Amino acid sequence: MTRGRTHGVAVTRHVEALLTVETPGEGFTDLTREVAAFLAEAGADTGMAHLFCRHTSAALVIQENADPDVRTDLLTALRGLAPEGSGWVHDLEGPDDMPAHVRTMLTDSALAIPVRAGRLRLGTWQAIYLVEHRTRPHQREVVLCYCGSGAR
């Protein structure tokens, strides 16, 4: 294991905002720019960005942003793991309802991403996505929080 320099940060600010996302239906919506804009507006320096999706049939993921085929293949995999028409008992909102809940359980509803010098510490090919697991468009809410020091 290679270790870098450690940095202690006194939490001097906590900023929260609500991001509303219009999804086109099943698929990935890139939120990276919106989260970066939130950090700039929050005056972030060094700390943590926390994101929380307020829904049980949509999720947050960090995934590759270079080749859109990766996202296509991920949707194919999720459909295979929790397909429609598999005898689900819960179908109050349609045949995609229960598969969407299972797919959310397999992905995640929250992310924590380090921030340094006001920038997300994502890898070269990483982006933040909201994954809509339902087939029709929805309006989704993501709570954005920044905890850390303010800009110098």
Automatic annotation (TrEMBL):
Family to which the UniProt record says this protein belongs: Belongs to the UPF0047 family.
PANTHER family to which the protein is assigned, alphabetical: UNCHARACTERIZED PROTEIN YJBQ-RELATED (PTHR30615), UPF0047 PROTEIN C4A8.02C (PTHR30615:SF8)
UniProt-recorded name of the protein: Secondary thiamine-phosphate synthase enzyme
Annotated source species: Aquabacter spiritensis
